[in-house]
Amino acid sequence: MTGWDTRVTEFGPIGDSSARNGDKHVYNPILVNPQVIRPLIGRLRSVLVHSQRQLGEALGISKRTVLRWEGGQTAPTDFQVAAMARLAHPRDRALAGELAASLGKSLVDLGIEAPAPPPPVPAWPKRPATPYLVDSVVCVAAEAAAILPQAMRAPLLAAVERMVALELSPADVAEALKPAPKGKREK
């Protein structure tokens, strides 16, 4: 026996040495480097304005364990350091980040902060209306009206200008111009 008890937790694997055991996770603690964590524990107690006893109670451990950590005799496990980061985060985000970094993780990895939202999807660039594309629209409208394209330009321009003035999208206009389904009358 190494002196450490394995803990069964419902939180899932915390460190790299967790193994699955039925529906629960068996947690094998990983010790954190005492030289790295020791000053962070003192800063945590200062930020939280906690005595060794109060910090121990907040973490579910004894005052003596906190005393040993601060004295460099033992070190907390990765699970305990993650719990310390959760305690620190509301008051000192930088300290919480340092505690997470001592585990080689980020606050997002520990579930303390939400990941950054993905960048917005860029809008499609507007393509300038080339004369050929406009001519094709005019020709389709002229053919539908059974008139020459030159006669369709003025009415089509007036319709588009009104559409823009009313802030209607082409999709709105197209939907409104579709014939009503049979059996339904417009009001």
Description:
- This protein has 187 residues and is mainly α.
- Among the domains are: 31-101, Orthogonal Bundle (434 Repressor (Amino-terminal Domain)), CATH 1.10.260; 131-177.
- Helix content is 49%, strand content 5%.
- The protein has 8 helices and 3 strands, in the order βββαααααααα.
- The protein has helices spanning 34-48, 52-59, 63-71, 78-88, 93-101, 131-145, 149-165, 170-177, and strands at 7-9, 19-21, 24-27.
- It has a 3-stranded antiparallel sheet, with no helix packed on it.
- A hairpin with a 2-residue loop joins strand 2 and strand 3 (24-27).
- It starts with 6 loop residues before the first strand and ends in a 10-residue tail after the last helix.
- Residues 1-21 have low confidence and may be disordered.
